[in-house]
């Protein structure tokens, strides 16, 4: 049967995308931060096997079951729901959150999966029905290695481990272990004391523990935040917000960024393009010093 255009569009908003040159659909299954339990994987695999098909993992770590017939969409949704899974991840709204494996990775500074889950619950679930000018992607990275590419997302978070330097404990060693091990070449001996160029240092924390006299010790984990990144036909590295932030501050900045996008963005315009149009500094000032949260209800009630 020929499918009506409105039916194709309706199920697309539910996470079922028409497979090119067919009347079958790719079922996009939402994974929280790219993880599924063994039981959830079994359910997804059984559905895929039923249609003699495959599962494809997207660049944002959701799973697409390829080849679901239109007439089976409701049954597939119900079966997934029994396993605690939902479909979606399309449209001009916040998209599924991606998080790296910093939770278990030897380089990760913190529980990236836990933070990603908080972001998923607050924004993908809590604000998932908020219409935006365009899609809005969030990525959570565990360290400056940037494996998940946070700075190429509309909002990116990068874990930071700023070192604390106590000059009183520095002995100006002939071979400074901090200088020797610094991966950014930002730590050098000057006038018999170790000096760190904070403009070059990316707070990777690799120098921590290298000084035998404990002149460099760890501080609490903080977060570097980026706005307006994107990849694809047009690529833009995200604009870094000045300073480092606590988890609570970073969460609020995500909400402010979404509100700013809804308030100032044009329909069909990406967040990156909006920032370039209004100016980076104006966007930063609005996020750090504006009244976006106090205007939340007004902004959400606006017509796009």
Notable features of this structure?
304 residues; alpha+beta; 5-stranded mixed β-sheet; 4-stranded antiparallel β-sheet; 9 helices; 17% strand
Description:
This protein has helices at residues 5-13, 38-50, 73-82, 112-125, 177-181, 247-264, 271-278, 280-289, 296-301, and strands at residues 16-18, 24-29, 55-57, 63-69, 98-99, 138-141, 155-160, 163-165, 187-190, 193-196, 216-218, 222-227, 239-240. The protein has 304 residues and is of the alpha+beta class. A five-stranded mixed β-sheet has the order 5-6-7-12-13, with helices on one face. The protein has a four-stranded antiparallel β-sheet with strand order 1-2-4-3. It is globular. The two termini are 36 Å apart. The model has no long low-confidence stretch (mean pLDDT 94).
How would you summarize this macromolecular structure in one to three sentences?
By secondary structure, this protein is of the alpha+beta class. The chain is 31% helix and 17% strand.
Q: What is Rg?
A: 23 Å
Number of helices: 9
Biggest sheet details: 5 strands, mixed
Query: Unreliable runs, pLDDT <50, ≥5 residues?
Result: none
Q: Given the C-alpha coordinates, what overall shape results?
A: globular
Helix proportion of residues, in percent? Answer: 25-40%
**Mean pLDDT rating:** 94
Percent in strands: 15-25%
* Cross-sheet strand order for the largest sheet: 5-6-7-12-13
What separation lies between the terminal Cα atoms?
36 Å
Secondary-structure content class: alpha+beta
Q: H/E series, N to C?
A: HEEHEEHEHEEEHEEEEEHHHH
- Tell me how many strands there are: 13
């Amino acid at each position: 049967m020929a499918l009506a255009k409105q039916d194709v569009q309706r199920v697309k908003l539910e996470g079922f995308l028409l497979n090119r040159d067919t009347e079958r659909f790719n079922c996009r299954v939402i994974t929280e931060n790219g993880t599924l339990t063994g039981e959830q994987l079994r359910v997804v695999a059984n559905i895929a096997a039923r249609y003699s098909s495959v599962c494809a993992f997207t660049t944002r770590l959701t799973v697409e079951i390829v080849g679901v017939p239109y007439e089976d969409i409701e049954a597939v949704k119900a079966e997934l729901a029994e396993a605690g899974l939902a479909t979606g991840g399309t449209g001009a709204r916040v998209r599924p959150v991606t998080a790296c494996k910093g939770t278990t990775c030897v380089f990760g500074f913190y529980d990236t999966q836990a933070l990603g889950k908080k972001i998923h619950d607050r924004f993908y679930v809590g604000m998932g029905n908020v219409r935006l000018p365009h899609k809005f992607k969030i990525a959570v990275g565990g360290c400056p290695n940037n494996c998940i590419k946070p700075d190429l997302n509309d909002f990116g978070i990068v874990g930071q481990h700023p070192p604390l330097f106590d000059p009183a404990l520095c002995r100006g060693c002939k071979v400074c272990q901090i200088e020797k091990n610094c991966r950014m070449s930002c730590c050098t001996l000057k006038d018999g004391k170790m000096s760190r160029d904070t403009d070059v240092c990316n707070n990777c924390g690799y120098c921590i523990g290298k000084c035998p006299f404990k002149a460099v010790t760890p501080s609490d984990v903080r977060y570097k935040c980026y706005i307006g990144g994107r990849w694809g036909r047009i690529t833009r590295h995200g604009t870094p917000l000045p300073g480092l932030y606590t988890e609570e501050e970073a969460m609020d900045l995500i909400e402010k960024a979404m509100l700013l996008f809804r308030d100032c963005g044009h329909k069909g315009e990406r967040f990156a393009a909006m920032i370039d149009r209004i100016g980076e500094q104006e966007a930063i000032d609005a996020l750090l010093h504006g009244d976006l949260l106090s205007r939340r209800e007004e902004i959400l009630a606006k017509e796009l």
